[in-house]
Design a protein that fits this description.
Keywords: Glycosidase, Hydrolase, Signal. This is Glycoside hydrolase family 43 protein. The chain is built from no helices and 21 strands. It is mostly beta strands. The protein has a single domain, classed as 5 Propeller (Tachylectin-2, Chain A). The strands form 5 sheets. Strands 14, 15, 16, 17 and 18 form a 5-stranded antiparallel β-sheet that branches.
């Protein structure tokens, strides 16, 4: 693995790392990218998702605490220099300015957006927000726009996924393959936990499964029932697995996800399967974790549809800044 200097205020980093999955002999290698755009360097830009449209890269992120912006947006022409989108008056652009009735408007805590392009050319955003019915939990909503940057208009007055009795839901991510469309997400059992790191490090550990659900072309109509594809491994994960993002390389499905509490042992890792619904085999070692080239609590990543461009966040003086990597994968071996 290359040893590289990482400035505390740097927005992006990259790495060379191989992490095999014994059963499938899958490895992942990332290559350093160094420069950050002046408008985003050091910015708090957590849980970034990524999409490329007409050769331009767009990133969407969780709101900054204390800001009235619900969903942040940044763009890049080269996946190297990024700028946060602003309005004509110089204020920050909000991709989701209006929230639906199911959201607790007093403290919406909008998290982990994901944007995907539908077959009809429009764009779907999945996002998490505090539920008005129970402000201790989040649910997942959907919104749509004719333009990739938005503004996005929520669908109706009800949430898309909201299992309050199981802790709510967060971190939805869309994925399309072979004319089929899916959503993955996390059931947020941590909100029902018994204490410790992220509220789920005291036995008995509460399930916080990652689910997958097939949907119709509209991105919101469910087909069949959801399937659990991952769950936390108790203390080994600090009761946390979350932030799923899928891609298929050859015949192998690669599920990028994070484990551990985001304030203590967060990491960016992955698992592989020959079936989209699993079972998934975890990598023997995370891609990124605290101590790798100066990173602290890296995770919350999203892989682009090309299976190469990866965004994630890690701690910085400004909060959780966005980092980038280029990943090269194939069915047996990964290389640049």
């Amino acid at each position: 693995m290359l040893s590289c200097f990482l400035c505390a205020l740097s927005t992006f980093a990259a790495f060379v790392l191989a992490s095999p999955v014994p059963e499938l002999h899958i490895s992942v290698q990332t290559t350093r990218r160094s420069e950050a755009g002046s408008d985003i360097a050091g910015a708090n830009f957590p849980d970034p998702s990524i999409i490329q449209v007409s050769g331009v890269w767009y990133a969407f992120a969780t709101r900054t605490i204390g800001s009235s912006i619900h969903i942040q947006v940044a763009r890049s022409d080269d996946f190297t220099t990024w700028s946060i989108l602003k309005k004509a008056d110089g204020t920050q652009f909000d991709a989701l300015p209006n929230l639906p009735a199911w959201v607790d408007k007093s403290d919406p805590a909008t998290w982990a957006p994901d944007v995907d392009q539908l077959a009809d050319g429009s764009f779907m955003m999945y996002y998490s927000a505090t539920a008005a019915a129970d402000s201790t939990k989040h649910c997942i909503g959907a919104a749509r726009s004719a333009n990739v940057t938005g503004p996005y208009t929520p669908f109706g007055t009800t949430s898309l996924i909201c299992p309050l009795s199981r802790g709510g839901a967060i971190d939805a991510s869309g994925y399309a393959i072979g004319g089929h469309r899916y959503i993955t997400w996390k059931i947020d059992g941590n909100s029902l936990g018994h204490g410790g790191a992220c509220n789920n490090l005291v036995a008995p550990y509460v399930s916080s499964p990652i689910m997958i659900q097939q949907v119709q072309a509209d991105g919101i109509t469910f087909l069949g029932t959801a399937t659990k594809i991952m769950d936390n491994d108790g203390p080994a994960d600090q009761g946390v697995v979350e932030a799923p993002s899928l891609v298929q390389i050859g015949r192998t499905f690669v599920l990028f996800f994070s484990s551990g509490c985001f304030v203590s042992t967060y990491n960016q890792t992955y698992a592989t399967s020959t079936s989209i619904t699993g079972p998934y085999t975890r990598a023997t070692k995370p891609l990124f974790y605290t101590g790798i080239d100066g990173l602290t609590n890296p995770g919350g990543g999203d892989i682009a549809a090309d299976g190469k461009h990866l965004l994630f966040h890690a701690n910085s003086p400004a909060g959780r800044s966005m980092f980038q990597a280029v990943v090269s994968l194939n069915g047996r071996k990964v290389s640049d």
